[in-house]
Design a protein that fits this description.
With 1207 residues, this protein is of the alpha+beta class. It contains 45 helices and 26 strands. It catalyses: Ca(2+)(in) + ATP + H2O = Ca(2+)(out) + ADP + phosphate + H(+).
């Protein structure tokens, strides 16, 4: 671990440390503690004994008490922070605004523009020696103004750069805010002044006594004082995946950033922040990439003292965000890198589609601009030197060059307008805006793209406890002494013996951190702290008019002889105590069917044990447990067993110990369904999302709750099975999971009960890898326990519970539900769909402007030797289009209507046929208007023609009208772009979005200023009211035209079937398509090579699979499943606005319905293999990519690409 460098780095600090230590008056220095923490196992135990006597000795040196903790006195805490450091790691410095400006300047098109503008500036100051003989002579005033165009271009470049930089800066700031918010969320239990309190991780100091339990992520280094059955996953530091057993006498060293996988205990905090093991690694990494500052600090041996840490942004100070395990670096770095270079793997579905689109449009723009320049130059040369036979005068060369530069600038502006640099911006703005707003809806988003993936979700696998239910457990029924009480009995009815055993069993055999506190406000419910099931049992003790605290005070936690903590394998918890006579008693509690299996006796009415035969057990299950479970109660059995003191039992031999128990009682605990859940589930089902419940509870309880929630309705043909049955159905003789078997189970599965974490992971993986449906399923999963980590990681979107969730679960998740509520997931779906729609709106608007501006500039230049829209005007249009429009359209708030449609699915093209219709329709309208104005405008308005103007002529009214009309048409079209599904009312809800309104009005105001006062730089002359009236009228025409377009049904426009490709063709020369294909095949081949083995296996099985899958499909979906629960193409067909069109021409996505009309696709034979091929292939790629969350999102792995390769 680079010990040498550590010790070098710190040996220089030792002097300061020791001196400061004597000031601090603590008996041990930072350095000594660090050396201690680098030891492991028995070495550490020996060292503690040699140096400090024992743990108490170390506690005394650190002036703390092992049972009562620190006093919590403020001056003492400050002194500790000063001597031993704070528990935070200074963050990487954010990029400064200037760095961001510099990055924005790296844009190629901007650089070209800057160069052209500089040349133009330089030439405008050059006076040819030949006096007035220059071609296109003009008077003095105009020559003076020659420099304005160059300057104006430079100025507009500066604007664009500043806007881009500002956006990046705010993005960075938001990200840091999010980071610090996540860190503030992390709290830890610490004992101070004999009270257990929850502290933010940053406030923990050396000398604190921390309570650690199952599922914690250790925030500091420490030494174990007392532990029960403690197992730690140290893979994040050592890379070893085996869990390490910890005990105070064997291996007491606990390291920050490791996960508690089992058990509980108390530790003395010995190192925090930069001195802890994680902190040391971070310092070596320089908290990310080693910046110069950190290196200097290391050399001079300055330990970053608290003051300098405060200087760096305190809020974002990266707390002990522990290193993530082998799966993938540490979150912040990952997120940072994701921003720096959105690598192949990190791209979400949407970003992948957008990048591809932007590249295609960019290429088309480049070709167009190159052709424009060539035509202009040739025309000029031919016209001047061939037709007019002018000689090439040397002294006129600069003038000719000036013309060429002007042509070049026109070409570059065509390129600038064609390249939609607003696309990534729109995504960023939309996501950032959504993330910010989702905070208010109790969704804390950790990975930006999760927000958008959620919009495509087709399945949600939800936990029951705490997500669908309130997680407030109350005991409502019990079976004691051979009597089944439907409500909690009066204590007088129970025998004293039974009651005493019951009270002791519950009070001692539960985590001592679990308590019931009096209500905070009058008339409120008492507060439940700790494990909610245990709270329910403690509530039972209180209901029986007894108190659990005196029992616990009599036998404090450190006197418990042995604890078998609850885990998902045992499904029970047991505690052994030593009785005064030297014998032992073990209390046990757990899931009733599991504990009862191990009982051989049961207490009768007098409280005496009687024999409990297997047949009694069956009767008990039928008469007591099943009726309770069918009422939705969770059943817990409490039992005990006595052991002789001599010989002492072998405690490690668990199977023998946890057997031959005596049952005391069975308790039915109610956990009511959250009131808002049933409606949220109805909304999900309406939105085409299947909700499945995966729980560890009894199958009857689970079914009862599922019916209450509305996940299943009586009389429907759905599966409710438990983990055993699930595994029996999906595994073959060898015990391996088979996808084909899985495909028979998951479509109808709604409730999976008594499931282990592996079952959950298997189910999620099975649904994701399935090829049954046309679209790959997108699965969201909720989880709260440590063991849910793998499933959360595997899912497309993992939701962790903010309140009940363990740190491990939060670490593995993408979104944290701060209120643990299922209805917040529905909000996340709404926001996700909103992001997708916002981007589509922006695309519809942007592409219209692109198409029109490029065609106008191109044809105008070819026919009139001058672009009707000047460079600066183009840049202004670009600014409206890119920055303002993305702001306006990306911040539309979501509406309930978003939940009324099915998910889009992964391979739906970005540009639907309705959008294509809108883009083409509006494009045609704008082109007609602009060309009419360009060629006959001077006659209509009775003004001078602006065509064929000499080089530096003053701006003409004619061209000003064209520019003004163009901009106003875009403004009104922006309102049209608010709807993308062919809705009529485009003003619907417009005032709910103040940003949109202010941007539209703001743009209009600036446009007036530009036209009236822009003058030479903007090539505008002021217009009178009448002309303004006409311009506005033509702009308003957009809204009317929008209604006309909306009346044309998509089905009439057969050519729109190639929709995606059509828009491209407007701007795309043929050879481009070829390149795109090759490029895709490259990606796909790369994937192929990685998955070759799997491929061949898959291909061998394809023949049989085609038949099986097809037969299976038809049978499955004919009789068994409601048609609308399957997001299929047919459903889209019923709503014309959801027609699936594809941007890539030759993908038979619409084969199901359009086969008859389209002769080119009648070869039905290759089609069915293709369908399955596509399916198998995508399945395979997904299996390969299990390592990365975004496997399916990565471009090449998506079924779309694989289909192309197979074609």
């Amino acid at each position: 671990m680079g010990d040498l460098t550590n010790s070098d780095y710190y040996s220089k600090n030792q002097r300061n440390d020791v001196s400061s230590n004597h000031e601090g008056g603590f008996g041990v220095s930072v350095m000594e503690l660090r050396e201690l923490m680098e030891l492991r196992g028995s070495e550490a135990v020996v060292k503690i004994q040699e140096e400090y006597g024992d743990m108490d000795g170390l506690c005394q040196r650190l002036k703390t008490s092992p049972t009562e903790g620190l006093t919590g006195d403020a001056t003492d805490l400050d002194k500790r922070k000063e001597v031993y450091g704070e528990n935070l790691i200074p963050p990487k410095k954010p990029k400064t605004f200037l760095q961001l400006v510099w990055e924005a300047l790296q844009d190629v098109t901007l650089i070209i523009l800057e160069v052209a503008a500089l040349i133009s500036l330089g030439l405008s100051f050059y006076q040819p020696p030949g006096g007035d003989t220059a071609a296109g002579a003009e008077d003095e005033g105009e020559a003076e103004a020659g420099w304005i165009e160059g300057a104006a271009i430079l100025l507009s470049v500066v604007c664009v750069v500043l806007v881009t930089a500002f956006n990046d800066w705010s993005k960075e700031k938001q990200f840091r805010g999010l980071q610090s918010r996540i860190e503030q969320e992390q709290k830890f239990q610490v004992v101070r002044g004999a009270q257990v309190i929850q502290l933010p991780v940053a406030d923990i100091v050396v000398g604190d006594i921390a309570q650690i339990k199952y599922g914690d992520l250790l925030p500091t280094d420490g030494v174990l004082i007392q532990g029960n059955d403690l197992k730690i996953d140290e893979s994040s530091l050592t890379g070893e995946s085996d869990h390490v057993k910890k005990a105070a006498d064997r291996d007491p060293m606990l390291l920050s950033g490791t996960h508690v996988m089992e058990g509980s205990g108390r530790m003395l905090v010995t190192a925090v922040g930069v001195n802890s093991q994680t902190g040391i690694i971070f310092t070596l990494l320089g908290a990310g990439e080693p910046g110069e500052e950190e290196k200097k600090e290391k050399k001079d041996g300055i330990e970053p003292n608290p003051d300098s840490m405060k200087k760096q942004d305190g809020a974002a100070a990266m707390e002990m965000q522990p290193l993530k395990s082998a799966e993938g670096g540490e979150m912040e770095e990952k997120e940072e890198k994701k921003k720096a270079n959105v690598s192949k793997k990190e791209k979400s579905v949407l970003q992948g589609k957008l990048t591809k689109l932007a590249v295609q449009i960019g290429k088309a723009g480049l070709v167009m601009s190159a052709i424009t320049v060539i035509i202009l130059v040739l025309y000029f040369a031919v016209d001047n030197f061939v037709l007019q036979k002018r000689p090439w005068l040397t002294e006129c060369t600069p003038i000719y060059v000036q013309y060429f530069v002007k042509f070049f600038i026109i070409g570059v502006t065509v390129l600038v307008v064609a390249v939609p640099e607003g696309l990534p911006l729109a995504v960023t703005i939309s996501l950032a805006y959504s993330v910010k707003k989702m905070m208010k809806d109790n969704n804390l988003v950790r990975h930006l793209d999760a927000c958008e993936t959620m919009g495509n979700a087709t399945a949600i696998c939800s936990d029951k406890t705490g997500t669908l239910t309130t997680n407030r457990m109350t005991a409502v029924a019990c079976y004691v002494g051979d009597v089944h009480y439907k409500e909690i009995p009066d204590p007088g009815l129970l025998s004293v013996k039974s009651l005493d055993i019951l009270v002791n069993a519950i009070s001692l055999n539960s985590a001592y951190t679990t308590k019931i506190l009096p209500a905070t406000k009058e008339g409120g419910l008492p507060m439940q702290v700790g494990n909610k099931t245990e709270c329910g049992l403690l509530g039972l003790v209180l209901d029986l008019k007894r108190d659990y605290q005196p029992v616990r005070n009599q036998i404090p936690e450190e006197k418990l002889y042995k604890v078998y903590t609850f885990n998902s394998v045992r499904k029970s918890m047991s505690t052994v105590i030593k009785l005064p006579d030297g014998s032992f008693r073990m209390y046990s509690k757990g899931a009733s069917e599991i504990v009862l299996k191990k009982c051989t006796k049961i207490l009768n009415q007098e409280g005496e044990p009687r024999v409990f035969r297997p047949r009694d057990k069956d009767e008990m299950v039928k008469k007591v447990i099943e009726p309770m479970a069918c009422d939705g109660l969770r059943t817990i059995c409490v039992a005990y067993r006595d052991f002789p003191g001599d010989p002492e039992p072998l405690w490690d031999n668990e199977n023998d110990i946890l057997n031959e128990l005596t049952a005391v009682c069975v308790v039915g605990i109610e956990d009511p369904v959250r009131p808002e859940v049933p409606s949220a589930i109805v909304r999900c089902q309406r939105a085409g999302i299947t909700v499945r419940m995966v729980t560890g509870d009894n199958i009857n309880t689970a079914r009862a709750i599922a019916i209450k929630c509305g996940i299943i309705h009586p009389g429907e043909d759905f599966l409710c099975i438990d983990g055993k049955e699930f595994n029996r159905r999906i595994r073959n003789e060898k015990g391996e999971v088979e996808q084909e078997r899985m495909d028979k189970v998951w479509p109808k599965l709604r409730v999976l009960a008594r499931s282990s974490p592996t079952d959950k992971h298997t189910l999620v993986k099975g649904i994701i890898d399935s090829c049954l449906t046309d679209q790959r399923q997108v699965v969201a999963v909720t989880g709260d326990g440590t063991n849910d980590g793998p499933a959360l990681k595997k899912a497309d979107v993992g939701f962790a519970m903010g309140i009940a969730g363990t740190d491990v679960a939060k670490e593995a998740s993408d979104i944290i539900l701060t209120d643990d509520n299922f209805s917040s997931i529905v909000k996340a779906v709404m926001w996700g769909r909103n992001v997708y729609d916002s981007i589509s709106k922006f695309l519809q608007f942007q592409l219209t402007v692109n198409v029109v501006a490029v065609i106008v500039a191109f044809t105008g230049a070819c026919i009139t030797q001058d672009s009707p829209l000047k460079a600066v005007q183009m840049l202004w249009v670009n600014l409206i289009m890119d920055t303002f429009a993305s702001l306006a359209l990306a911040t539309e708030p979501p509406t309930e209507a978003l939940l009324m449609r099915k998910p889009y699915g992964r391979n739906k093209p970005l540009i639907s046929s309705t959008m294509t219709k809108n883009i083409l329709g509006h494009g045609i309208y704008q082109l007609v208007i602009i060309f009419s104005l360009l060629f006959v405008g001077e006659q209509i308005f009775d003004i001078d023609s602006g065509r064929h103007a000499p080089l530096h002529s003053p701006p003409s009214e004619h061209y000003t009208i064209i520019f003004n009309t163009f901009v106003l048409m875009q403004l009104f079209n922006e309102i049209n772009a608010r709807k993308i599904h062919g809705e009529r009312n485009v003003f619907d809800g417009i005032f709910r979005n103040p940003i949109f309104c202010s941007i539209v009005f703001g743009t209009f105001a600036i446009q007036i200023v530009i036209v009236q006062f822009g003058g030479k730089p903007f090539s505008c002359t002021p217009l009178d009211l009448e002309k303004w009236g006409w311009c506005t009228f033509l702009g308003l025409g957009e809204l009317v035209w929008g209604q006309v377009i909306a009346t044309i049904p998509n089905s009439k426009l057969r050519f729109l079937r190639g929709a995606g490709q059509l828009t491209k063709k407007n701007e795309m020369p043929g050879d481009e398509d070829m390149n795109e294909d090759n490029e895709e095949i490259d990606h796909a081949e790369r994937e192929l090579r990685r998955g070759q083995v799997l491929w061949f296996r898959g291909l061998n099985r394809i023949q049989t699979q085609i038949r099986v899958v097809n037969a299976f499909r038809s049978s499955l979906y004919e009789g068994l499943e409601k048609p609308d629960s399957r997001p299929s193409i047919h459903n889209f067909m019923t709503h014309p606005e959801f027609r699936i069109e594809d941007t890539t021409p030759h993908i038979p996505l619409i084969d199901d319905t359009d086969l008859e009309e389209d002769p080119s696709q009648t070869g039905s034979q290759p089609q069915s293999p293709n369908k399955n091929n596509n399916a198998v292939d995508s399945g395979i790629n997904l299996t390969i990519d299990t390592t990365s969350k975004s496997a399916a999102s990565s471009g090449p792995a998506s079924p779309l690409h694989s289909l192309e390769t197979s074609l």
